[in-house]
Amino acid sequence: MVTMTTRAAGKLKEIMEAENRHEQGVRIMVKPGGCSGFSYAMGFDSQVRDEDIVVEQHGIRVMIDPQSARFLQGIEVDYVESLMGGGFAIKNPNAVRTCGCGQSFRTRDQEGEPQECM
Q1: Which domains, and CATH codes, for the chain?
Q2: What is the DSSP letter of 60?
């Protein structure tokens, strides 16, 4: 379901160590909004819910709720560095349109609720 690059896992481990989040995992979600209709959200979470899909890669536990899972099938999570700084990037094979920022997308079957970019 989810592929996490070793670079992304390494950066997450670095953040988790610095913030004393050793027992937590990473939750990846899809929310309505963003200029293309849906936006990604990612954060640390210590609670695995019964309905969550849980994947562990490179020592990082990833949790995805069932509603988000239908949009996240086959994604790759990477960490990229550029002249403007670094950040996590999600490559989503389900996205047919994305925003220039890379945080908003739409799928062939779902348009979501587009909003203005800030």
Answers
A1: 2-107 (2.60.300.12)
A2: E
CA distances in angstroms from 79 to 4, 8, 76, listed in the order given: 9, 5, 10
Mean pLDDT of 97-106: 56
CA distance 115 to 118: 9
CB burial of 71-106 (b: ≥16 within 10 Å; e: otherwise) equals bbeebebbbeeeeeeeebbbebebbeebbeebbbbb
pLDDT tens-digit readout, 21-75: 999 999 999 887 766 677 889 999 999 999 999 999 999 999 999 999 988 999 9
- Cα(6)–Cα(53) distance, integer angstroms: 21
Closest CA to 23 of 44, 50, 49: 44
Task: Enter the DSSP assignment of 87.
Answer: E
- The whole-model pTM stands at 0.80
